Amino acid sequence: MPTLTHFTRPIPALACAVAFNAGLVNVPAYASDKDPASIMDGQESPELLVYLAEKTDGQKWAANYGLKIQRKLVGKADAYVFVTPSVDDARKLLPIIRQDRAVTRAFNNRYVVAMTQEAKPCGDPWEETPCWNDPNLPPLPPFTPFENYFLPQPGVHAGQWHLYNDFGWIHIDALNAWQQGAAGTGVVIGVVDSGVEMTHPDLVVRPTLSYDFVHDDTDPSPNLFTSTGYYPHGTAVAGVAAARGGNGLGVTGVAPYASIAALRVPLANTFAPSELGSVLSTTDRFVDAIYFGGHEIQIKNHSYGPPAPYQIRDARIAALQETSAEGMIHVVAAGNGQSFSDGNFTRRDASARPYAIPEVITVAAVGPEGHHADYSNYGASIVVSAPSRACATCEPGLLTTDVTGGNGYNNFSGTLFPDPDYTDTFGGTSGAAPIVAGALALAKQQRPGLNSRWAKHLLANSSQVIDLEDHSPESDGGWQENTAGCRFNQNYGFGLVNADRLVALASLKSLELTPLLAWGTSLRIKPTTIPDADKTGVTFNITFDGHKNPTDALEEVGVSVRIDHTRRGEVEIFLVSPNGTKRRMMHRYDSAYDSSINGIGFVDDAGQIQPWTFWSHAFWGENPHGQWSVIIRDTEHGTIGMVDAVQLHLRMGRLKAGDIQFGSCDLGQHLLS
After folding, report:
1. Strand pairing class (299-302; 188-193)
2. What is each CA distance from 190 to 218, 265, 297, 299, in whole angstroms?
3. N or C: fewer beta carbons within 10 Å in the chain?
4. Three state DSSP letters for 463-507
5. What is the 3-state composition of the chain as percent helix, strand, coil, each rounded to the nearest 5?
6. Is 346 exposed, middle or buried (0-12, 13-18, 19+ CB in 10 A)?
7. What is the pLDDT of residues 14-36, one digit of tens each?
8. Given CA atoms 131, 137, 139, 144 in this order, what sign does their dihedral have?
9. Beta bridge partners of 301
C-alpha cells in the first residue's frame, strides 16, 4: 500500500481563494429573466415523442396523421420523434394518438435545459471486457496504484485525496477496496454528459457503446469550439469514475479497470446551435441516452440538472424507471442549488428536482474536512454523499482527466496544472456523483446482480457517518436515528460512501434481497386551506393496514401533494410514521422572489396539474403498519395556500443473511465485524 505524505502547497489547503476567471471555472449557467433559454426548460415543443408497438411501420403511421419523422431513437426500438406544424397542433394531436392501438406511449417532446453540476460560489463556505463473471478465469491480483498524480506532490498538488489520504481529510478508502480484488473489471460506466475525449491516453472508452446524441453519430467527443469552460466536463467525470489505473500514467479512477461508454447529450453551454439546429435541446436526446446500451452498460452517471425546480416529470423519468427495473444503475448528482442571478433567493432541496425518484442513487457533496459542501443540495431524497470541493473555488479540487493539450479546464482556469492533460480544479456534485458510480462498479464486479435496490441497501449498511456536530436547518436537525436503528441526515443521506465496506458487503454470498412490495393510496380531500404562518399547519392521516396488505420493512417512503400557493417557498412538509418518527419531506426557502405559476406540482402533457412526489430514505427499515400523518404548514405571513391532493407511497423490502433478517441499517456492523 503506498505511503502518503502531507501536502504542503503554499496556498492554504482549504482556503476559499478568489477564483481564477471565476466566470469560467466550475460555474454553470443559472436561470434568470435574462436567459430565455432557461425559461424555456420544460416548455412544450411542436414535436411528439412516440413509442410505437412492435413491427409498426413508422413512416406509414406518420403518414396517417400527416406527420414527418424528425429522428428515430437509437437506444429504444420503435421510438420516434415526429414533427407537427405548431405547439397547438402537437397539443391537440397528443390525446388522439394516445388512443391509437399502435401507440404504446406518447409525450410532447418538451424543451430541455440541462446544466453541468459544478459549483457556483454562494458566500462563506464555513457557514453553516465483459467476462468478469466467468468462473473459469483466474482472479486478477489486487490493484495497486502507481499513477503519477495519485500521491501528493508537496507544493504542487494534493494528489487524489478523495481516494485515500493521510491528511486527516475524508476519503472513500479505495485502497482497501482494491485490496479485496475489486477494480471494476468488466463493468461499463456510461457517462451521460458533454462528451468524453475518446483518445485520452488515460481513459478506456468503448466505441461500440458510445454515441453522440447531439450530432446523431458515433463520435461523442466534446465540441472544443463552443468558447465556454463546460465542454471538458464529461472527460473530467469519466476520469473520476474510471481513469485507467495500473498504467503508471496520470491518475486512477475509483474503478480503475472499468471502461467508459461516452454518451454525449446537449448540456447547456457545451454545444453550438449549429450542431443541433437550435439553441434548445429536446427530451428525446436524453431519453435516448438513458435507454442506449441496454444490459451492456451496467451503470450510468448523470452529473447535470435543471435550472429551476418542479420541472415536468416527463419521458425521461419513465426511461429511468424502465431501465432501472431491468437492472441498470443510475447515479445522479444532487445539484448545486438553483441561484437566480439577481441573488434574491437560493433553492437547494434536491427533492424538487425531476430525477429525485426511488429508482436512482442521488449523491450530495462533502468537502475534505467532512462538512457539507456549501453548494450541495440536500434533502430527504439524498442517498449518499461523496468527496468534492468544499466550495466552488476552495482547494483542493478533484484531480482527474482533462481534455488533452491544455484545451480543457486548464485553458480557462488561469493556472495551468503541470500536465495539460489533467486538472485538479474539478468539483461540485458533478464530481461527487462519479465517485459513487465508480464505487458501485467495484461492488458490481463482486456481485453481478447488483441493481439500484441492492445498491441502496448496501449503501445504507456500509456508508460512514460523518460530521456528528451537524445540526443545521438544511439537515433536518442533524443525524437522526429512526426506530429501526437507521441513521439519516438530509445533508449526507446514509453517510459518506466507504468503498472498502461497500465491496466487503457486496462480496458476502449469503445475502438475499426480498422482493419489492409497493403500496400507495390517495386521501380524498376537499380543497383545504393551509393556515397562514402557523407552525401547527394542517394534518392529513392515512392508515396502512399491514394485516390486509403484503408488508415488509420500509425502503423509500413518498408523499405526493398538489398545492396552490403563489409563494411555494413558504411551504414545509413533514411526515410522521406509525412509530412516531417525524421527518421533513420538503424544506422551505426564501420565497419572496419566486412567483410560482403552479405552486407545488407540475403540468403534464395533457395540460393538467399533477401532484409532486417527495421521496425520503429517513424511514428506512421501519415497520410501516399503522397511521401515517402528513403535516403541511405555511411558514411566512402574507399569502395563503390551498392543498387539494395528498397521497402516501410505501416501498418495502429487506436484506437477509441466511435465516437472519435485518430490518435496520446495522447489517454491515453485524456481518463485517
Report:
1. parallel
2. 14, 12, 6, 6
3. C
4. CECCCCCCCCHHHCCCCEECCCCCEEECCCECCECCHHHHHHHHC
5. 20, 25, 55
6. middle
7. 433 323 222 222 333 333 334 55
8. negative
9. 191, 331
C-alpha cell at 341: 442571478
User: Residue 547: helix, strand or coil by DSSP?
Assistant: coil
Per the DSSP assignment, residues forming a β-bridge with 48 are 82, 108
Comparing C-alpha atoms, which of 148, 114, 141 is closest to residue 268?
A: 114
Collapse the DSSP code of 570 into the 3-class scheme (helix H, G, I; strand E, B; otherwise coil) and give the result.
helix
For residues 559 and 592, the answer to whether their CB atoms sit within 8 Å is: no
Say what the pLDDT of residue 602 is.
Answer: 85
The pLDDT assigned to 237 comes to 98
Report which residue type is found at 301: N
Eight-class DSSP state of 153: B
C-alpha cell of residue 42 = 420544460
Q: What whole-number distance in Å separates Cα of residue 668 and Cα of residue 259? A: 29
Is 295 exposed, middle or buried, given 0-12, 13-18 or 19+ CB atoms closer than 10 A?
exposed
Residue 523 — very low, low, confident or very high, per pLDDT cuts 50/70/90?
confident
Which CATH number is 44-109 given?
A: 3.30.70
φ/ψ of 98, rounded to 5, equals: -65, -20
**Element spanning 274, H or E:** helix 273-276
DSSP 350-364: GGGSTT-STTEEEEE
Note the pLDDT tens digit of each residue in 158-214.
999 999 999 999 999 999 999 999 999 999 999 999 999 999 999 999 999 999 999
Query: Which residue reads 465485524 in cell numbers?
Result: 673
Q: Are 75 and 290 in contact (CB under 8 A)?
A: yes
| Domain segments of the chain as ranges | 44-109, 176-467+487-508, 517-653
Instruction: Give pLDDT, residue 139.
Output: 55
Best CA proximity match to 148, nearest among 408, 442, 399 = 399
pTM above 0.85, yes or no: yes
| CATH level 3 topology of 517-653 | Jelly Rolls (2.60.120)
Residue 291 banded pLDDT, cuts 50, 70, 90: very high
Q: List the one residue out of 453, 425, 438, 450 whose CA is nearest residue 497.
A: 438
Architecture of domain 176-467+487-508: 3-Layer(aba) Sandwich (3.40)
Cα dist from 340 to 26, 33, 308, 559, 592, whole Å: 17, 9, 9, 28, 12
What is the mean pLDDT of the segment spanning 636-664? Answer: 86
3-state secondary structure of 425: strand
Task: For residue 76, give the DSSP letter.
Answer: S
pLDDT higher than threshold 60 for residue 346: yes
Is pLDDT of 335 > 60?
yes
